[in-house]
Amino acid sequence: MTLIAPAPPHIDRDNLLDRTERSTIDRQIRERLIAREDAALADAYRQHRDRVYRVALGILRRADLAEDVTQRVFVRLWQRPERFDPSRGTLGGFLQLDAHGRAVDLLRSERARVERELREHRLAPSSDGQVGIEEEVMRRISSERVRDALSALTDDQRTSIMLAFFEGHSYRKVAELLGQPEGTVKSRIRIGLARLKELLGEATPGLA
Predict the structure, then answer these.
(1) Structural domain containing residue 166
(2) What is the pTM of this model?
(3) If you average pLDDT over every residue of the chain, what do you get?
(4) Last residue of some domain: 80, 112, 144?
């Protein structure tokens, strides 16, 4: 199997085909996959990648995770092409359904991981005896309201905060990963956290 690389957006021609043509193409791709023809996977990927990616992105709301699910879906197709039954629907529909299942599984796994880390985390009072904004955000990061607030930040702010608080990297490591000065990263995180506090307001008492 050749490595699948991210593909640029393309014209979705699936809707231009009638049901008979679509079924014929899907059956041919299935047969070629079973015969272990690399080009068949490339054809399936080119035809259906965009819609599979959109399904995953709609659930996960993170491009990196959606791309990961997209890769998994096509790897699974290559490993077990016989799972697709053309008599029960189109290949596009089959792949989108698989993407939905994989995305939901990954979302649950990510939430469980974050919640587990939060349970293990112990809040330490700041010098004035109050819980700091960073610790409070970490404690509440698993809530849907905070996740929605994160989407309102700039890409730079959101990425920096997620690397620092979701993945547990130090400011220095975040700076290295992003190729930015540490001071810049700290500033983005500080501004982003302040924005989160403003967005959450009284609905999140510890951040008000």
Answers:
(1) 121-207
(2) 0.51
(3) 77
(4) 112
